[in-house]
Amino acid sequence: DAGVIQSPRHEVTEMGQEVTLRCKPISGHDYLFWYRQTMMRGLELLIYFNNNVPIDDSGMPEDRFSAKMPNASFSTLKIQPSEPRDSAVYFCASRPSSTDTQYFGPGTRLTVL
Amino acid sequence: KQEVTQIPAALSVPEGENLVLNCSFTDSAIYNLQWFRQDPGKGLTSLLLIQSSQREQTSGRLNASLDKSSGRSTLYIAASQPGDSATYFCAVGAGNNRKLIWGLGTSLAVNP
């Protein structure tokens, strides 16, 4: 299996621009998670989906952040407009319903200038 | 509110040494506890998962223990190798939806 796939791996943009991060979970996994990792705050859960339905978005920082999962094999995390404080590594993870073990993608390093 | 603390924040040891990483959590009402490893510039990899009813799990040179009543877990690495150098995270699954609550990690350097 190819594992969780994220794109792009690196993104550099200017403040105010829209940013879209993409994730393809492992086939057959029912749960998908979006995390943000920074030195100051560590790993933060932003939102997670079960069977393509958002279950808990309480970690989404503000209305500038939105996430969708139109089908079982694709999810996006969008930031509009982006701000320098959004600079972080964003991880996508997935897991099947049969286990609590999460499988992480390689992450997208976002830099907002 | 569940909080997870990892001590030490950083650790440097010579190759071959046995070592222990510590994790503590404030609320004993957990479903499970997991240990992950993160190599620089990479995603996280699950190492061990301990269900709340279990006391320990082992995988190769790794052994993780769980003491729910005291709110503690340890990750024991035997005969450390330079390839073990990474950041190790502890996370507890808690709440109705079993969300993972994360520690800030321990950065381990094993020197040849």
The biggest sheet of chain B, with number of strands, parallel, antiparallel or mixed sense and barrel status, is: 6 strands, mixed
The DSSP helix count of chain B reads 0
User: Could you spell the SSE succession of chain A in H and E letters?
Assistant: EEEEEEEEEEE
The largest contact between protein chains, plus residue counts on each side, is:
A-B, 19 and 20 residues
Q: Kindly state the percentage of residues in helix of chain A.
A: under 10%
- Binned strand content of chain A: over 45%
Low-confidence stretches of chain A: none
| CA-CA gap between termini of chain A | 36 Å
Number of helices of chain A: 0
Shape designation of chain B: globular
Averaged pLDDT of chain B, please?
94
Could you give the order of the helices and strands of chain B? EEEEEEEEEEE
Task: Give structural attributes.
heterodimer, A: 113 residues, mainly beta, 4-stranded antiparallel beta sheet, 55% strand, B: 112 residues, 5-stranded antiparallel beta sheet
Description:
The complex is a heterodimer of chains A (113) and B (112). Chain A has 113 residues and is mainly beta. Chain A is 0% helix and 55% strand. Chain A has no helices and eleven strands. In chain A, the strands form two sheets. In chain A, strands 2, 4, 5, 6, 9, 10 and 11 form a seven-stranded mixed sheet that branches. A four-stranded antiparallel sheet of chain A has the order 1-3-8-7, with no helix packed on it. The mean pLDDT of chain B is 94. Chain B has no helices and eleven strands. Chain B has strands spanning 4-7, 10-14, 19-25, 32-38, 44-51, 56-59, 62-67, 72-77, 86-94, 99-102, 106-111. Chain B is mainly beta and 112 residues long. Classes of the chains: A mainly beta (113), B mainly beta (112). The A-B interface holds A 4, 42-45, 48, 55-56, 91, 93, 99-107 and B 31-32, 34, 42-46, 49, 89, 91, 93, 97-100, 102-105.
